[in-house]
Write a structure and sequence with these properties.
By secondary structure, the chain is an alpha+beta fold. About 30% of the residues lie in helices and about 20% in strands. The protein has an 8-stranded mixed sheet. A hairpin with a 2-residue loop joins strand 5 and strand 6. The relative contact order is 0.09.
């Protein structure tokens, strides 16, 4: 593109109001500020020498809160004892003490923090890299406020006034106004001295489940030098820029950024598990597992950007996990810039770099030679096609006219360039998955991403499943491609099947899931589905909570079943239960299903793109259609276990006031993806887009999608099929219960 990499991120990076990949819109974030700071840094402006390269990358982490507890006790001498249960792995005790001192208005050195276990405090969620200062810090602030309320009450007792007449300011209890009285302010020391006369020990406690953890962004710059003979990489300079919310203890925050960057550099250059031919780990200890040491790293520069998190009393964001995300891409981009080779596997060990550079030289030599041969081939092809005036002759151009140097493709004939590329990708698929069929589309897309964005998809040397993040293009794009080997599949433990699920997700638009665009199918629609639950009342409450708004109860036309109708946009979900154990009609069918403990979807009612064309096409293929009471049904044996009603567009009568819930997509488990696509294309009249391995399946299943609805992203029909010989929940469900919803 010829665009500076930081300028590209400045133009397209996320900002306040941008919709995140997981649906919500970002509040106050500092992505743009980190990019601007990186652009302005001295590091980004210094020139590079031979065999040197510079790489940049931006990374994101969503951060979490969770359960935390804290206690504050005012001692007799006015000192403060602070207890909390999050182990200190990065200086959190100092940060807790600082927040308590700031809230209370006393000197930091008067607060004595202690980390205790659950014998002395309540339950704390996991201690990780990004939640303790946020969540436990919030608990400390709340506990300190509770202690302040008690201090105000003690001052009110001394002054013999109402507690509402006492305020806490600058570490002292003061009268709220002159109307309360003319009293001298009382400090923590003063109130602690009279505690035994005003009610005994003074303390505060808080048990919280912290919400509102602010997401955080970082942008890293990495300079490397690559030895062209040995492939050894030397990291010359490294700068980590990050939005830290509010740095409670700046030195410790800098240490977090430096530690994360050091881990990421190690992951990018050295760290890998090595297995022998029997699957035995050959480097189980730090003696053989190569982590970076001090001599491997430069002094890592840090730039702290403070965009306070509005949900925390001091604006805290988690900082520990963000800095491990950008180094993998930043280091790889730098090595690519130094060598001219785009890498798609980590770690970038010396043998891997030497092999890639040598392969590049061999490709260049082959292309040069191939180009000379192709010039003769193109001329001969053009002359041949000019002479061929048959029906399949393609475009006719004389060999000496405009476009004389171009090969003219014929209808149905592959472009030779695409043909070569296809087999190269096919071989890659075969080497990784043990097969090429069905995986090509996904891998072609992955290679395009590799060329465009660098190491967005990473295959480790031992081909383990990994999920990586890519931050580029419009907003922050997440792409995930699972890469697995046959040996890993054989080692995977089978998982028990589980019943179908109701997927509650943010509205992100079905047409653009995972960056893949689908054209809408005008008028084709998922009209409604009917579900037969074993516990009707419980299911009713669930759907009422999920769908919001009102519902309509009615009986089936034959009077054998009760249907509760919930509206989701233009579609409908109906819950059905039999009335009085009927033996006929809809109620009778559902009654028999529930007796055999076969609850689930009873019916999917679909409006095809063209109803008459769909019926004629299905009948021409010998599909069994059932006609009953003017309705046309596709037998479940021909629709992957789903009873499908084909219907023209219908109105469901007057709608009650409904919420914002919408029908997003219907996922159907199938055994043969290609065959299912052909069948459902005839049922819906739409076009199935085979995605290959589903981006979030960790290699467990393949998927295809049919866009439906009059608007882009309105609805989607998804077909999913377990990958052969890969044990998974879906594979066991298919084996246990067969195809279906």
């Amino acid at each position: 593109l010829g665009i500076d990499p930081l300028e590209l991120r400045a133009k397209n990076g996320a900002k306040e109001g941008t919709q995140a990949a997981y649906g919500v819109k970002f509040g106050a974030i500092g992505m743009q500020e980190t990019v601007a700071a990186a652009q302005a840094s001295e590091h980004y402006k210094i020139p590079l020498g031979p065999n040197q390269g510079r790489g940049v990358a931006s990374g994101f982490w969503f951060n979490i809160g969770g359960e935390s507890c804290a206690g504050i006790r005012i001692n007799e001498d006015g000192s403060v004892s602070l207890t909390e249960g999050s182990p200190d792995i990065g200086g959190s005790r100092a940060s807790m003490a600082m927040m308590a001192a700031e809230t209370l208005g006393v000197d930091y050195h008067k607060v004595k923090p202690s980390v205790v276990d659950t014998d002395a405090t309540g339950y704390h969620f996991v201690t990780g890299g990004s939640r303790v200062t946020f969540a436990t810090g919030m608990a400390v602030v709340e506990a300190t406020k509770a202690a302040i309320d008690e201090l105000r009450a003690r001052a009110a007792m001394v002054w013999e006034v109402d507690v509402d007449g006492v305020i806490w300011e600058d570490g002292h209890a003061k009268p709220a106004s002159s109307n309360v009285g003319d009293f001298e302010p009382m400090s923590v020391v003063d109130l602690a001295a009279v505690a035994n006369k005003t009610g005994g020990p003074i303390s505060g406690h808080a048990d919280i489940n912290a919400k509102g953890a602010g997401p955080a962004f970082g942008t890293h710059i990495c300079d490397v030098e690559v030895d062209p003979d040995t492939g050894h990489v030397t990291v010359l300079r490294y700068t980590a820029v990050q939005d830290v919310g509010r740095a409670i203890h700046p030195s410790y925050v800098e240490g977090q950024l430096q530690g994360g960057a050091a881990q990421g550099i190690g992951w990018a250059l050295n760290e890998a598990y090595i297995y022998d031919e029997n699957g035995r780990l050959e480097n189980p200890g730090f003696l053989d597992y190569r982590v970076p040491v001090a001599s491997d790293l430069p002094m890592i520069d840090t730039v702290l950007i403070e965009i306070p998190n509005p949900t925390h009393p001091f604006g805290v964001r988690g900082v520990g996990e963000v800095p491990i995300i950008p180094p993998l891409a930043a280091v790889s981009n730098a090595v690519s810039a130094a060598t001219g080779v785009r890498f798609n596997a980590l770690p970038l060990s010396p043998p891997a770099i030497v092999a890639a550079v040598d392969a590049k030289k061999e490709r260049s030599e082959r292309q040069r030679t191939h180009g000379q041969n192709r010039s003769v081939q193109r001329h001969c092809t053009a002359v041949h096609q000019w002479a061929d005036r048959g029906p399949c002759g393609g475009q006719k151009r004389p060999p000496d006219g405009p476009g004389a140097g171009r090969q003219i493709s014929r209808p149905g004939q592959r472009n030779p360039n695409h043909h070569v590329c296809r087999h190269r990708r096919h071989d890659f698929a075969r080497s990784v998955f043990g097969r090429g069929d069905g995986y090509e589309r996904d891998l072609c897309a992955a290679e395009d991403w590799w060329r465009l964005t660098g190491p967005s998809v990473i295959q480790t040397n031992h081909r383990r499943l990994i999920l990586s993040r890519l931050f580029c293009a419009v907003s922050v794009i997440q792409i995930a491609v699972a890469v697995a080997s046959k040996s890993l599949r054989k080692q995977a433990k089978p998982m028990p099947p589980r019943p179908g699920s109701l997927d509650i997700c943010p509205s992100v638009g079905s047409s653009s899931h995972f960056g893949i665009e689908y054209r809408p199918m005008p008028q084709g629609f998922i009209d409604h589905i009917v579900i037969a639950p074993a516990e009707f009342d419980r299911a009713f409450k669930v759907f009422q909570a999920v769908c919001g708004g009102g519902h309509v109860d009615h009986q089936s036309a034959d009077g054998s079943a009760l249907l509760s109708r919930f509206y989701l946009g233009e579609s409908v979900v109906e819950l059905a239960k039999p009335l009085n154990e009927p033996s006929h009609g809809i109620g009778g069918i559902i009654h028999q299903r529930l007796k055999s403990k076969d609850q689930g979807m009873h019916l999917a009612c679909i409006q095809p793109f063209n109803l008459d064309v769909a019926i004629a096409s299905l009948e021409a293929d010998g599909v069994k259609l059932i006609r009953n009471d003017g309705h046309v049904y596709v037998h479940p044996n021909f629709a992957n276990g789903v009873l499908v009603q084909l219907t023209p567009r219908r109105e469901f009568g007057e709608r009650p006031e409904s919420g914002d819930a919408k029908f997003d997509h219907l996922a159907i488990l199938v055994a043969d993806l290609e065959a299912a696509c052909a069948g459902w294309e005839k049922i819906t009249g739409g076009t199935a887009h085979i995605m290959g391995v589903h981006p979030v399946s960790n290699g467990a299943f393949r998927a295809a999608r049919i866009a439906m609805g009059a608007q882009i992203g309105e609805q989607m029909l998804e077909l999913i099929s377990p990958v052969k010989d890969f044990p998974s929940q879906l594979a066991h469900r298919l084996a246990d219960r067969g195809e279906g919803l």
